[in-house]
């Protein structure tokens, strides 16, 4: 049990360091691997599905990272209107979407693809680019951009 608390302490410290770097806008999120590393720390230890949005400026620096929706063990409801409102509030130029699969299987479902298409269309109306949607399972992550499922890529 002591080992678990020590391990949790290290994870908490790592998240804190990453968040300070990201908030200082010193880290530019241009590579899916960097994004995956950050998200792995945030999402893999969740016991229910959570949906996260990273709001970025025009240089792909993090403005804010939020978890607007939390669901159940097997699903999470995502409301595009709420994400559009936040993107406007932050004056974001781009977003990276992410969510976890507590089952451990990172393979995106058809529902994941559908919600991504809906978000992409809604955000395009306000000139906000969806750079990626990353689905995390236990030890693995699937990038929509890398699979060619988005019209945009992280440049």
Automatic annotation (TrEMBL):
<keyword id="KW-0645">Protease</keyword>
<dbReference type="InterPro" id="IPR020891">
    <property type="entry name" value="UPF0758_CS"/>
</dbReference>
<dbReference type="Pfam" id="PF04002">
    <property type="entry name" value="RadC"/>
</dbReference>
<dbReference type="InterPro" id="IPR025657">
    <property type="entry name" value="RadC_JAB"/>
</dbReference>
<keyword id="KW-0482">Metalloprotease</keyword>
<dbReference type="InterPro" id="IPR037518">
    <property type="entry name" value="MPN"/>
</dbReference>
<keyword id="KW-0378">Hydrolase</keyword>
<keyword id="KW-0479">Metal-binding</keyword>
<protein>
    <submittedName>
        <fullName>DNA repair protein RadC</fullName>
    </submittedName>
</protein>
<dbReference type="InterPro" id="IPR001405">
    <property type="entry name" value="UPF0758"/>
</dbReference>
<keyword id="KW-0862">Zinc</keyword>
<feature type="domain" description="MPN">
    <location>
        <begin position="28"/>
        <end position="150"/>
    </location>
</feature>
